[in-house]
Amino acid sequence: MPHRLHQLLDSLAHITSYRDVQRLELSLLKTLHEILNPLSLQLYKVDEAYRLLIALSYQPAQSDVVELQPEQAQSQPASDLVRRALQQGQPCFVQAADASYLCAFPVVDMHDIHFCLLIGSQEPLVATEEHLISSFFRIYHNFCRLLEDAQTDELTGLLNRKTFDENFLRISQELIDPNILADADDRRRVLAAKVDHHWMAVLDIDHFKQVNDTYGHIFGDEVLILISRLMQQNFRRTDYLYRFGGEEFVIVAHCGGLAEAKKLFTRLHRAIESYPFPQVGQVTASIGVVQLTNRHLASSLLDQADQALYYAKSHGRNQLHFYQELLDQGLMKEKRPKTGSVDLF
Questions:
Q1: Residue 263 belongs to what domain range?
Q2: Domain ends where: 151, 178, 207?
Q3: Is there a single domain that holds both residue 135 and residue 198?
Q4: Residues in Cβ contact with 168 at an 8 Å cutoff, skipping those fewer than 6 apart
Q5: Domain match, 85 and 59 both
Q6: Judgement on whether residues 237 and 312 belong to the same structural domain of the protein
Q7: Residue 43 needs a FRET pair 20 to 30 A away by CA distance; which of 1, 216, 247, 333 works?
Q8: Residue limits of the GGDEF domain (predicted)?
Q9: How confident is the model at residue 316 (pLDDT cuts 50, 70, 90)?
Q10: Would you name the residues annotated as active-site residues?
C-alpha cells in the first residue's frame, strides 16, 4: 500500500502539470493501469439520459487510448453497470461469465456529460483499493473544475483565448519537430498522428456591431451563445472550439481530407445562416480555413486562415473560403516572410 500511495502522489503531480483535457484523460488511464494492472481499463462518457457519447479503452502496449465501437461499448453487462454506478453515485461491480470482475467508478460530471471508469480484474477490488481510487477521483474532479474555470470563456463555455495561445505554442512545437517534446507519450502520439488531417478555421460574425447597436448587448450576447451551441452541435467533442475574442471564434478540427473538411465547415456555415435568432432574425458569418501542415509555423497558419477570412469579408461576407484554394485560383498571393531586418519596436 505505501508503494501504491507513493505512485499515486507522483502520478498526481504529473497529471496536474497538464492543461489539455485529452492528455489528462490519457494520463489518468495510464496512471490507474500502472497502479492496478487490470485486465481492462475503459472510460465511458454518457449524457444526462445515460446515452453513450464515447467510450475509450486504454492500450498499455501503445500507451494510448482507442475509441470503442458502439456495439463493443454497449455490450452487456458493461453498459448496465455503468448506468447503475452513475445513478447510485458510487462504485458498482459484477462478476462476468469468465469469472473475472467488472467494477464501475463514477469519475466526474462536467456540465451535461457523465464520466465513468470501467475496470476489469481477475479478483474483486478490496476496500483499500476502492478508497484509494475514489480519493484519486475526487482530486482529479477538483482539478478538472479548476482547469475548466481557467480555460473556458465565461459567456459561451467554449475554450478561451488564453487556452488557444497555450495550445498553439504546443502545436507550433509539434509541427516543427515532435522529437523536441519532453514527454515520450506525447512524442509517440504526435509521430503517429496525421498532422495534415487537421484544419483550422477562423469565424467572424458579420455586422455584429450593428446587432449590439440595434438590439442591445443582451441580444448580442445571446447571438454569441447560440452560435457557440451551433458550433458544439456540428463538431465532435474531440475538436477544439475557441471564442477568440469579441465576435471571432477559432476551430481546430480533425478531417480525413479536403472533401470532408468542406462538408464539415459548410454544414456549420449553413446552420448559422438558416438559424432563426430571437429578435435579431438572420445572422451570418464569414469563415476562413487552412490546413495544418508542418511546412509552416503555427502562427503563419493562423495568419493564413485570417487572410482567407479577410477575403470573405471584403467580397460580400457570409462566405466560406479555404486559403489554399484562393492561392490556386489566383485570387490571393502568398505572403512571403520578411528577411534581413528585425523590428523590435
A1: 161-328
A2: 151
A3: no
A4: 298, 299, 302
A5: yes
A6: yes
A7: 1
A8: 196-325
A9: very high
A10: 247
